[in-house]
Write a structure and sequence with these properties.
alpha/beta; seven-stranded mixed β-sheet; 7 strands; 29% strand
């Protein structure tokens, strides 16, 4: 996911991000160089073990402070309405309980906040969906719990958001069952 094609997608997805940001699924920090100068603080969560040297190298020349925590998205420790934006890039596919995670993300976003996402998921092509369904059990085992067939836009809506902008496209050069992308911005629905 370090190739120029993936980096270009990260750049496009992160362009509208600003203020205090929560990144879900930080990994080794591949998004770091793509955050715009409008970001004032980055708080990132990653439940897995990080490659500390890579993270340190990627964050060495940043102007914004970065703090990283080993939390799961399903249970965020922060108070309500703390962040201006939340970001998820190729992460919703692996979260065990994505609806619970999305509800938590919505809870910690300020009113008027943004949830920016770039994810792969369920295709609109029935032939591809058939292959995604067949391959999904194997994908989950061999790719750290990754699901090929989650309908990302519907999941985000069901998780308490209104999708304001959505770009659907097939990313060239990837195996077709994993190439259907969802890139967009959603706003949190009021918590009742």
């Amino acid at each position: 996911m370090r190739t120029p094609r993936f980096q270009e997608q990260r750049q496009q997805a992160l362009a509208p991000v600003s203020g205090t940001v929560l990144e879900i699924g930080f990994g080794t920090g591949l998004n770091l160089s793509h955050y715009p100068s409008t970001v004032t603080w980055l708080t990132a969560i990653e439940p897995g073990h990080l490659l500390d040297q890579r993270v340190a190298a990627r964050s060495a020349n940043l102007t914004m402070p970065v703090e990283i925590f080993r939390y799961r998205a399903e249970s965020l420790p922060w108070e309500d309405e703390r962040f201006d934006c939340a970001v998820s890039t190729w992460t919703l596919c692996t979260i065990r309980d994505p609806l619970r995670a999305l509800n938590e993300i919505r809870r910690v976003l300020k009113p008027g906040g943004k949830f920016v996402f770039l994810e792969h998921g369920r295709s609109d092509d029935p032939k591809v969906v058939r292959w995604q369904t067949i391959l999904n059990p194997f994908q989950r085992v061999f790719a750290c719990g990754c699901n090929l067939n989650r309908r990302i836009d519907r999941l985000i809506e069901d998780g308490g958001f209104t999708v304001e902008q959505l770009d659907r496209f097939v990313m060239e050069g990837l195996p077709r069952p994993g190439a259907d992308m969802y890139r967009g911005v959603a706003s949190p629905k009021p918590i009742s």
